[in-house]
Predict the 3D structure of the following.
Amino acid sequence: MMGAVRPVIVAANWKMHTTAAEAAALAGAIAAVIDEPAVTRVICPPYVGLAAVRDALAGTGIEVGAQNVHHELAGPFTGEVSAPMLQGLASWVICGHSERRRDAGETDALIGRKVGRALEHGLRPILAVGEQLADRQAGRAEEVVAAQLAGALGGPEPAVAESLVIAYEPVWAIGTGRNAHGADAAAMAGSIRRALARLGWRDAAERVPVLYGGSVTAANIGEFLAEPSIDGALVGGASLKIDEMAGIVARAALTARARAGVQGGSNG
Ligand code: PGA
């Protein structure tokens, strides 16, 4: 368990905001204020902005992600985009965001196929899981998330599973301004790692970065990064704001440097 230090990751989910031109301009402006190589930084614009954002971020070290990917490689799927089509445009992809579970009827099994396609094609999947408010109030949050993981990752662990990232996003916290408590998110991160181990995804269980998502801001990111089991954030609304992204990544850099220092010390 005490292997390599896990990276600190800040991923921006721009959802259905920005034209391609707006996305390029915003990416450039954000890049200028998040020049922190210690933090793995990912911007996920809408599909139509991927090429423009890739170009705007060239040479910055900031990576590009898609917000979705189809579970088939090609075929009669009007309006869809497959993993091979994302090659050269994105190196990350969000799979199973709760808005897609809700609006596009994505099931755990389907989301699992998306994760598989992403892994096969060298895209790092950010698998989003999270409970509804009623689940948390009923004390079922960990059980619900474990079931989502089992439904999506039920097959054998692929060789490239170490590139998997999990985003714990309680549905009641997304876009509501009501964030989870750091301690609850940390407990869930532990539960997620145990669930992966039970599924036989042992490499992933040891190495998987677990992000928190749901109303993350520059003001509250510290509460999550203070938890050693939380490795960063998937940020929605605040990720469209230059100052918020500057603050979030600056705080993440403190954690990244502290982790690297601890690692250096224990090795030396
Ligand atoms: P939010 O969205 O930060 O606006 O709550 C997070 C997400 O949906 O990934």
